From TrEMBL:
GO molecular function list: DNA binding
PROSITE patterns hit by this protein: HTH_MERR_2 (PS50937)
InterPro entries, sorted: DNA-bd_dom_put_sf, MerR-type_HTH_dom
Ranges where the HTH merR-type domain occurs: 19-87
Source species of the chain: Streptomyces tagetis
Family matches, as SMART domains: HTH_MERR
Lineage start: Bacteria, Bacillati, Actinomycetota, Actinomycetes, Kitasatosporales
Signal peptide: none
GO process annotations (BP): regulation of DNA-templated transcription
Entry superkingdom: Bacteria
Protein's recorded name: MerR family transcriptional regulator
Listed Pfam families: MerR_1
Entry-linked SUPFAM superfamilies: Putative DNA-binding domain (SSF46955)
Length: 110
């Protein structure tokens, strides 16, 4: 039997785990590190930092960055793309809360 590793397991199924370096994230998205930095400057995504201070991105953050890139590629400014995504997220959250409230309270008009 091979010896067990003493390193902790990488949470491969954790969408929030900061697994990707800036260079790798940019390559996966087909964009530049400057684009990823600009998403951080516009407060769309905030990458975690490694002990050495390097930006690290999660799969969830890469999905958000992909949506931003789609909007920018379609001609939307980066500022507007970031605001659109933030508003989409807020709308989704409001709809989720509304559904939860509806599920907990029957419609009195029914």
């Amino acid at each position: 039997m091979p010896p067990r590793s003493t390193r902790p397991a990488v949470p491969l199924d954790d969408d929030d785990y900061p697994a990707y370096t800036m260079g790798r994230a940019a390559a996966m998205l087909g964009t530049t590190p400057a684009f990823l930095r600009s998403l951080g400057e516009h407060r769309l995504i905030t990458p975690l930092r490694s002990e050495g201070g390097h930006r690290r991105y999660s799969r969830y953050q890469l999905r958000i960055a992909t949506r931003a890139r789609e909007l920018v590629d379609a001609g939307t400014s980066i500022e507007a793309a970031c605001r659109i995504i933030i508003l989409e997220d807020q709308l989704e959250e409001a709809q989720r809360i509304n559904e939860e409230l509806r599920a907990g309270h029957p419609d009195p008009s029914a």
